[in-house]
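step: validate -> pass
step: tokenize input -> pass
step: predict -> running
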Amino acid sequence: MITHIEGKLVEKNPTDVVIDCNGVGYFINISLHTFSQIPDRENLRLYTYLQVREDAHSLFGFSSKVEREIFKLLISVSGIGANTARTMLSSLTPEQIKDGIASENVALIQSVKGIGAKTAQRVILDLKDKVLKVYGIDELSLIPNNTNKDEALSALEVLGFNKKQSEKVVDAIVKFEPEAQVEQIIKEALKKL
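step: predict -> pass
step: emit ->
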């Protein structure tokens, strides 16, 4: 119903702002990400989402359309309410959330206060296909070229381990710890092979 509000910034707090639009003051809930993006000048435009519930009508404001879209995706997940979605956008940038969902990074999503393992998995399960489709992310581009991974794989092959089995184990290690050194990957893989 209300897609954006533009007006004079009257009050600015880490969790909310008040914007005067032609004599009407709008109280808008914001994330810390939006708070950090808001310039300290008088005129301001925020993209908004109006949540209508039995007991309240709440406006949520975002510095960009992308952040608003991520918010809408998050609240579409069972168990994620508007305040939880706002907390997620306060802890992580919209890009981090988008990339975390696309690359199935449960640990990243779970790092947000109040998000448990099951909720993080549900977010990824429910939103991965939507995020990949909406943002045109190619699944292959999510796995960066990892020379450490390649070196570890060739070392394991030289040691006589099955290539397919080694790839599975090494992929799991690199997914859990992308910055792992060659020696570390090989040591972890040897424990699991």
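step: describe -> Residues 143-192 form a domain with the Helicase, Ruva Protein; domain 3 fold (CATH 1.10.8.10).
step: cleanup -> pass
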